[in-house]
């Protein structure tokens, strides 16, 4: 049985892709080791089966990136808010992998590890107004200055739209598609996945209306097969 | 290069300690270099007393000039190598190993501490340019000058058209292995022979290949001699750490054989049949494992004709799977290389646990990278059939007692044994196997287990000695008596209580052999099953070269 819709997590290594997914599916944070290849999860969302591909950030696994992304309805591009390079890598290395995604694929940009920043306490404060003063101050002392701000993510989102030649009016607004999360504390992790799943459902419906396989996919398959037998002979 | 002024601070990583430079006459005499304990100490602790180390030799700022020097000198035969080309400074990218996610490990060990030096066995991996790639204990970056000295030794001997193999000191052996652009070094206080240590280093090398393939590594270093391979291996340290622990505790590595889960032959055959049925084109191997012990493995018929699944490849594969606990909930699809089968090609591995406790694992290897959904479907069929059969419950339930105790053999004085049959019919030589009981008292502590395995290693090295091989050894050790025996039919290592007599031990052996004979259907895979998944065999599977093109993604480096 093939799943109805596909969501792919992409991003440089050590930004916490596996941890995000683990927080969402297992409800806890676990120190994981570097992901090998890709891992596939199925999530029941209403009447639909949504598959989630957790991929390895290490570059030797890029060969499979386009296979993971083929026909994806949503791509979650993940970076580490304390590491500017991880945001740059999204554009440099990972964006090209999404070329095989569905044409109406939605993009989300997620800055993970906000718990390590000094802004985290403030974020929590705005979330829950009545948070005690003491906790806030104690948090600040141990945290570091955040390197990547939400504006940078929004800028990347707009670049992606340009790259995909999409009109800003036809896609969800940048502010809605840029998230900051913490897999360690669970901050906004459920919100991230659930927002995306809700957005994926209309795409699933459209894909199902268009028939089981798009022409693009078929030709892709064929050309891939031909090269393979050629090199094995 | 070896005669470079040792005092110059710019040559810090490369310059030889004077004592070592004084060794030049020895190396022309033979390829084995013996040095006294002082030199050994020198190599282990250049930070503390290396005569040439500048005070700030380990700072990040020093990294680049040092690399440049190393790269230049390592390529004396290739003076054209553009050392100014090394691009990315180390600080770039999120690719540094061990971020906040990584739990504290041996990586954090203080490499100047006495406890670090007292470790039983150190393993180092470096590139030909002297760049650190891996160290079993301590941060490899902090060890860059030590690794520099190692590379200096290697290239110094190399410049005399020779190759360094080992250094013996009073209590340690240093073994060097060079494989392509990688240098692997073992510094060991164990009783293992040089040959065995060399074999272990090869396991480490093969594990690296299983993730990167030989052709990629060669290509990367051809393009850039001072490439930092940790960029590609980041996060894999745990896989190598786990491998090195396994090598010391699992006799399968020593014997070059796999251990099977003891099972009634009928159940094993039923599971084999099940795997034989759940196939899809381009499937090459189906492997069912329960808690790292093999249940059964099915191989594509055309593949075995040319090659077979090597125990080494299986060990490395299972180690890799065992190391990634983060995946136990999902299904994994990953390119993986079986280096003994073909060091240059990737297979695509489907890995999934079949039970909630993650004891039973199914591994399916395909040559088609697009076949995830087809292979995943095979797994569903296997899983369903196993549930209807009830065998899944038997497997996960049967693991409460994962193997068997030596008591079942029913002979007194016998504490432990390793048995590897050699008289197997050709059609099941496909997979060398061995059997051994669970370790019981007095071998419960890690220390005692190490002691026992040291003894096994010693016996193994005597039996397999290249200069004077033995067929039978009766060895009285301090706390036990051991007997090793090799015939054309089997290889056997036994451990007895210390009070046994030679006649008594031989007598016990007869009983043990009779017991194994009786149990062999349960202990071994007698007739490894096969299947034909591809209508046009030999094409999809030939040489396990699914796609050389796949390595093309290194083009951008």
From TrEMBL, chain A:
The UniProt entry's GO biological process terms, in alphabetical order, are: cellular response to type II interferon; phagosome acidification; phagosome-lysosome fusion; protein transport
Q: What is its main location?
A: membrane
| Keyword Hydrolase tagged | yes
The answer, when asked if NAD is one of the entry's keywords, is no
Q: What is its EC number?
A: 3.6.5.2
- Key words of the record: Cytoplasmic vesicle, Golgi apparatus, GTP-binding, Hydrolase, Lipoprotein, Magnesium, Membrane, Metal-binding, Nucleotide-binding, Prenylation, Protein transport, Transport
- Check the record and name the SMART domains matching this protein: RAB, RAS, RHO
How does it sit in the bilayer? Lipid-anchor
- Enumerate the PROSITE patterns for this protein: RAB
Gene Ontology MF annotations: G protein activity; GTP binding; metal ion binding
Required co-factor? Mg(2+)
Q: Where in the cell is it found?
A: Cytoplasmic vesicle membrane; Cytoplasmic vesicle, Phagosome membrane; Golgi apparatus
Query: Catalytic activity annotated for this protein?
Result: GTP + H2O = GDP + phosphate + H(+)
**Family to which this protein belongs:** Belongs to the small GTPase superfamily. Rab family.
Q: What is this protein called?
A: Ras-related protein Rab-20
The source organism is Chrysemys picta bellii (Western painted turtle)
From TrEMBL, chain B:
Among the Pfam families in the record, one is Fuz_longin_2
Task: One GO cellular component term, please give it.
Answer: Mon1-Ccz1 complex
Stretch list, region Disordered: 1-109
Instruction: Specify the domain of life of the species encoding this protein.
Output: Eukaryota
Can you tell me which residues the record assigns to a coiled coil?
none
What is one Gene Ontology biological process annotated in the Swiss-Prot or TrEMBL record? vesicle-mediated transport
As for family, the record states:
Belongs to the MON1/SAND family.
Q: What does this protein do?
A: Plays an important role in membrane trafficking through the secretory apparatus.
This chain's protein is named: Vacuolar fusion protein MON1 homolog
Query: What species is this protein from?
Result: Chrysemys picta bellii
Gene that codes for this?
Answer: MON1B
